User: Fold these one by one.
Assistant:
Number 1:
Amino acid sequence: MTPAPLSPPWDVHRLPSAAGKSFLVTGGNAGIGYFVAEQLAATGAVVVLGCRDRGRAGAAMAAIRSRVPAARLRHLPLDLADLASVRGVADGLGLDRLDAVVHNAGVALDDPPRRTTEDGHELMFGVNHLGHVALTRALAPLLSAAPAARIVTVGSFAARSERLDPDDLQSLRDYRPSRTYGRSKLAQMSFAFELDRRLRARGSTLLSVVAHPGGALDSLTPPRPGVHAASRGTRLRALPAGLLLQGKDAGAWPIVRAVLDPRVRGGQLWGPRAFGLRGAPRLEPARAHMTDPAVAGHLWDASCDGAGVEAHLGLL
Ligand SMILES: NC(=O)c1ccc[n+]([C@@H]2O[C@H](COP(=O)([O-])OP(=O)(O)OC[C@H]3O[C@@H](n4cnc5c(N)ncnc54)[C@H](OP(=O)(O)O)[C@@H]3O)[C@@H](O)[C@H]2O)c1
């Protein structure tokens, strides 16, 4: 018997065809999300950019089409800070199934004061985490209609050094912007790992995967007219940082792999190869505090309550 051929190593520049599939990328108009959308568009899939500003979405779609003329793109108006609007968002998609959603959009504040969403949630926890919980619920029927859909959550290095305080998830007592950001990313990751455990327990074909971009700087990112420009001076000054960090085009690689690679499994964490900061995607071990079921169990209930959705998310 001839042995099965080994699958070739993953090549970020030679992605498999995904013709016939459809993917939604939140925050697909800028930064890492833009490059995730651009790279996925080249696979032949329908790519939906979930973004809050029609003009920025249009500019991103024009930039993608200038590089991928056959790109099949749509814009879904999406403001993750407005939970009521997120709940009805699937109606505007015009799709009968969704093969993957990438929970990429995010906000990272540098300075106090503590800010809140329309719904009264701390802004970073509200947009990065609760907005995506509400979105998962809204998309549940479309994700369930695909044979083996994926929910890809974009995590962060910043979550490594943080811990969730179950009594202060909204940073009312302890608000320090960078730490509150790190905790919002940890909440996203912890929830995503718990979602995968619950999906596996039900024998679901849906996968929940976490991927992170390492350290991805605008100043190391190639220009895209109408979307991103960095002056020559800025790019030159950033060159030393390029030894350790990367551009947002490369930051997209682990996320795109988590969407496309048939070898990816639910509950996995993907990130860049070199110190988790730059380079080609590789599988990483998740830290124990990210996968603690006791922490995640409390977070689950608080998150579904905060997002105003049922604990079964329409998936369990
Ligand atoms: N860059 C890094 O080194 C790094 C490291 C670890 C993790 N990450 C994660 O990677 C993801 C993307 O980061 P990035 O660096 O590409 O950020 P970015 O360039 O600031 O882009 C953020 C995206 O999120 C969107 N967004 C913000 N608030 C939103 C809302 N209320 N509703 C809908 N969309 C909203 C933005 O839309 P607008 O254009 O409308 O503002 C934009 O498209 C984030 O989840 C971030 O936490 C980044």
Note: The chain has one domain: 22-307.
Number 2:
Amino acid sequence: MTEPTEPTAGVSRRKFFSGSAALAGAGGMALGVAGALASGAAASAPTEPVSDVERMAARANLSYPFYGEHQGGIDTPPQDHLVFTAFDVTATSPTELQLVLAKWSAAMAEMTSGAPVGKVEPGREQAIPGDTGEATDMGPQGLTLTLGFGPSLFDERFGLAPFKPADFAQLPAMAGESLDPALTGGDLCIQACANDPQVAYHAVRNLARMARTMVKTKWTVLGFGRASAGANQTTPRNLMGFKDGTRNVKDVVDLDAHVWVGEEAGQPWMVGGSYLVARKIHMLIETWDEDTIGDQQSIFGRTKGEGAPLSGTREHDVPDFHATVAGAPAIAPDSHIALVAHENNGGTKILRRGYNFTDGLDAVGRLDAGLMFLSFQKNPIQFATLQRKLGSSDRLNEYIRHVGSGVFAVPAGLPAAGSYYGKEFFA
Ligand code: HEM
């Protein structure tokens, strides 16, 4: 059994405030604060008072180990910002794909430690900078980069069919979705999460840039205000104003049982990996905002303020789906939580790691925003089982539209420098 990734207060090769004497003394303190932040206690008071500058330095210097049994960005406590991008591979030879994966793996290791991917100032006026430079001096900011392979990567182009996990395919069409082909699929995906949006953006930009003759971006979502919670993290709110992530997969027993792929996958490169489902879900926010509080609460099965199940009073009270109030179920059977709770789905659980997103206004001036739903599970069937129920019965469907979708096989973590994702494919 694997413990959740322990964060470290990484010493970045870049300094947060270069030359700042103030931070030299903050280093020791930063370790303590970073530990507190990373263990999910971001909102709780650190044991010792620290200044704002020290707090910022700790946050900036927070880094997670890149090498390990699992990729980062799965059981890592959700950071504040997301850049999710799906790519199609335009290269046609296996060697070029191998090159992309090797280059990306090395660059991911560098950027998650806070290092640039090449010289920002190459030393010669005529030289093109290696790194684009916008994250210089910002620190790793808890950056994790999670790589996934779409089912289409295993088609005839690269000879990877023997490595395709059994039954790995695009998600089946499901009720209640209006998917836009421009926001669907992808041969590869990168989920970049960090506590600073510019650091996450920089990472995806530089990965895309270094492979620009071999991959092209297909769709991307910028997320903010993590709409999910890991162990010991306070529960944030989604754009409908409800706490999101209360009953998430948070402990190692559940991770092993529901998230990490085991030997049963039949593909050694996936053992310790997971499957990522990405759904861009548009919210009809103006309509939602006109609904009554009673109806909103009944739709989710939880109170809006505390986030308590309607059968209880506190956020973490276990929902009682048999409780009644005046003869009627306290939690409506067609409420969101009743439909997807593991108690009502043969024990099925998924690790949700979504983010709020906004794309400004749509063509007719309405708020274009919603939830970038991301979930990790040991088999995409877990997601499909829950989504089938939601798609056909969820009262939330009146207020949401699934517009984007992808499913990706997320390989296990890399053991050490020199290894790269997909190496087994090219042996
Ligand atoms: C815009 C779309 C969605 C919104 C706004 C939303 C919001 C919420 C909220 C507020 C909760 C209750 C708090 C919590 O336990 O986290 C919740 C729970 C949950 N949601 Fe969603 N959700 C959405 C889509 C989905 C989808 C697509 C799935 C999976 C197919 C899903 C699966 C779950 C699960 C498994 C729970 C925990 C239920 C429990 O065990 O009590 N949600 N969601």
Note: The longest strand covers residues 215-226.
